[in-house]
């Protein structure tokens, strides 16, 4: 009997340990299900978790976003990433001496919907043309249409890209602007997907670790995702500005397959930064626009967040004094798509 009890104890312990090990990492399937449960449809209501809803399985959200027939195989794409990143970094222009420079990194995390690629590409163009960052921009994207054009948006590539850009920068005086756009979960994970690749989602601590290693002093980080306010505590310091599309306990809108750009992306980038030269001014305008759109549509307010400090504001002011602000850059919706979501 004692041997039997001992055997039961050992088996129970082993099962518990195995379960704990599996729960330590957020596997793509678990996070995908979590995102699906929280993704909003065009009317702002929670999508039902059943086989009839596109949001029940993010990989079915846009049937056009399957692995392309003319693309390299998934293994070949993964194998090519170091080379693609080296090529992208090699194209970065040298910094301009004698003044603060701004470098831009865009990260479009979810390859199952075009909205995130649209947003990141537009932001990149906006900074290149309006904010004198041409030659200092780098884009990481998950999308079937860009597998051979941009390095993948993965945590590994993001860390490598930040480190590589840091080598090009004056880390004590230049500014890194980082945009991350994707779905987010209510336990504060940024969804990363390029089916069928097994990509890790990003937690606030992951992003904090990336910057702890890079040692870039001045940063402006924009996270366009549901529940993105949950990243603030892990990232804030006295030389970092953080802008999020929603409070830690709120969803944001316009991130479905019917959208050309998220509501936050439209408000902050297309409207805010085209009408204002400061990030705080753009945020104030975006916050007002989003509040009006969500009131009109009877949505629960997303409550975008801004955290800033005197030191990052002073450095941004010094950077602006050394550039010529360009003309507004219109957002051009992809051919065949409808109007921007927020204008519905």
Low-pLDDT runs of 5+ residues are 1-27, 39-64
Across the major sheet, the strand order is 2-1-3-4-5-6
Largest sheet, in brief, is:
6 strands, mixed
What letter string, H or E per element, gives the SSE order? HHHEHEHEHEHEHHEH
CATH fold descriptor = Rossmann fold
The N- to C-terminal Cα distance equals 70 Å
Return Rg in Å.
Answer: 21 Å
CATH architecture: 3-Layer(aba) Sandwich
Could you give a short description of this structure?
The chain has 344 residues and is α/β, with parallel strands linked by helices.
Summarize the structure in words.
The chain is α/β, with parallel strands linked by helices and 344 residues long. The protein contains ten helices and six strands; from the N terminus they run H-H-H-E-H-E-H-E-H-E-H-E-H-H-E-H. The protein has helices spanning 2-24, 28-38, 74-90, 114-130, 155-168, 204-214, 232-235, 263-275, 279-296, 310-321; strands spanning 102-108, 137-141, 175-181, 218-224, 240-244, 305-307. A six-stranded mixed beta sheet has the order 2-1-3-4-5-6, sandwiched between helices. Helix 7 (232-235) links the parallel strand 4 and strand 5.
């Amino acid at each position: 009997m004692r041997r039997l009890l001992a055997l039961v104890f050992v088996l129970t312990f082993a099962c518990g340990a195995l379960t704990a090990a599996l729960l330590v990492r957020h596997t793509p399937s678990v996070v995908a299900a979590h995102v699906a449960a929280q993704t909003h449809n065009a009317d702002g209501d929670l999508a039902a978790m059943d086989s009839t809803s596109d949001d029940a399985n993010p990989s079915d959200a846009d049937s056009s976003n399957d692995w392309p027939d003319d693309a390299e195989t998934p293994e070949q794409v993964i194998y090519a990433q170091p080379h693609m990143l080296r090529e992208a970094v090699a194209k970065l222009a040298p910094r301009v001496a004698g003044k603060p420079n701004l470098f831009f990194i865009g990260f479009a995390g979810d390859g199952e919907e075009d909205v995130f690629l649209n947003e990141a590409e537009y932001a990149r163009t906006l900074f290149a043309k309006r904010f004198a960052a041409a030659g200092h921009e780098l884009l990481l994207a998950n999308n079937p249409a860009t597998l051979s054009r941009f390095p993948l948006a993965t945590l590994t590539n993001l860390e490598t890209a930040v480190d590589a850009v840091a080598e090009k920068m004056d880390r004590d005086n230049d500014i890194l602007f980082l945009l991350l756009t994707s779905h987010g979960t209510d336990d504060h994970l940024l969804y990363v997907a390029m089916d069928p690749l097994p990509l890790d989602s990003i937690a606030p601590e992951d992003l904090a670790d990336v910057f702890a290693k890079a040692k870039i002093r001045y940063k402006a980080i924009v996270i366009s995702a549901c529940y993105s306010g949950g990243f603030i505590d892990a990232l804030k310091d006295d030389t970092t500005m953080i802008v999020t599309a929603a409070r830690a306990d709120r969803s944001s809108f316009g991130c479905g397959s019917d959208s050309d750009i998220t509501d936050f992306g439209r408000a902050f980038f297309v409207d805010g930064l085209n009408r204002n030269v400061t990030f705080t001014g753009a945020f104030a305008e975006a916050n007002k626009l989003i509040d009006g759109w969500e009131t009109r549509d009877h949505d629960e307010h997303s409550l975008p967040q801004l955290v800033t400090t005197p030191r990052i504001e002073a450095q941004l002011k010094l950077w602006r004094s050394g550039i010529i602000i360009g003309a507004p850059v219109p957002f051009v919706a992809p051919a065949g798509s409808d109007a921007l979501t927020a204008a519905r």
